Amino acid sequence: QNIDLAAGSLSARGQVAFGAAGHLQAAFFERVAWPGNDLRDLIIERNAAASWKVGATAKLVNLVPLRQNEGMSVGETLFFDLTAERIVVDDDVTLSGQLSGKRNSSGNGSAKFLGVLSVHGKPLITEANMKMNFGSKEELVTGTGLIGGGEASLSFETSDDAAPKLMIMSENAGRVLSGLKVTDTVRGGKLWLTSIFKEDDFRSYDTTIELAKFRVVEAPRALRAFSVLSLAGLYSLVEGDGTAFQRGSAVLETRGPIVKISSMKASGKAVGVTML
User: Fold this and answer.
1) Cα separation values, 88 from 96, 101, 157, 198, 221, Å
2) Is the per-residue pLDDT at 5 higher than 60?
3) For the residues 146-157, what does the mean pLDDT come to?
4) If 233 and its partner were Cys, which of 80, 158, 177, 270 is the partner (CB 3.0–4.6 Å)?
């Protein structure tokens, strides 16, 4: 009872319960902190199947050891239910919300997440509802959420045999593309986006974008001039809702802060455009 422990960088306050044979049965801590972790109301229980159950609310949790099957829980079956302000998945991705799931003794597991997903410290997906499967050789994330206020479904997969791939689909292309910082000149439309990552830091990748039934506002002056040549284009300009396109596609190469537009095409009743 009333444990108050300080050992190097580890500090903990709470109580521990032992079984009849002297093995640790459960632990209840008001707070446990060590570098990269700050947990409150931590409950650790060992069940009859010799697996562990961990639940906590936290300010900061680092999941890298859990995902890589390292640290104190290596080789153990672990059930977890965490609600945290910041959950570190890796150097680039953090979560804020509730994460629950299971990891078996070999390091493979699955989880569900509700909350906000951030990349490089900036929120990317809000109201996220995702399922995750992880292991030593491959990882898969699927789910839905809001990107730039537009609802989208997404999947992310990575393995030892293939480069990481992200796929995003949405019925509101304009909002999602704005949320992804691609462009804020598209309104409405359907979106299919695929990114293939070249490096582990997720800063170098090739992106293919497909669009359907969308509009472009603040179009380049030449494009607006060409669209006036048709009645449909003239009508859209008078109405002020941009230039309409039926189909569009783009291939982008991102290398850190540099983005190269490899190709961009769009076709509609008013005008068709191809850019290199």
Assistant:
1) 9, 16, 18, 22, 45
2) yes
3) 94
4) 270
Q: Mention every residue, 6+ apart, whose C-beta is less than 8 A from residue 72.
A: none
CA separation (Å) from 129 to 116, 117, 215?
A: 9, 10, 29
CA-wise closest residue to 119 among 138, 143, 155, 95: 95
pLDDT tens string 38-73? 999 999 998 766 688 999 999 999 887 766 666 656
Cβ(173)–Cβ(186) below 8 Å: yes
CA 115, CA 100: separation in Å to the nearest integer? 12
Q: Which residues pair with 39 in a beta bridge?
A: 32, 58
* Contact yes or no for 58/31 (Cβ under 8 A): no
| DSSP bridge partners of 129 | 114, 144
Q: CB neighbours of 260 closer than 8 A, spacing ≥ 6?
A: 252, 253, 254
**Average pLDDT rounded to a whole number, residues 26-45:** 91
Kindly state the percentage of the chain with pLDDT values over 90.
45
3-class SS of residue 225: helix
Residues 6+ apart with CB under 8 A from 181: none
Tens digit of each residue's pLDDT (9 = 90 or more) over 241-275 = 778 899 999 999 999 889 898 999 999 887 788 88
Rounded to two decimals, the pTM is: 0.82
d(CA 84, CA 251): 37
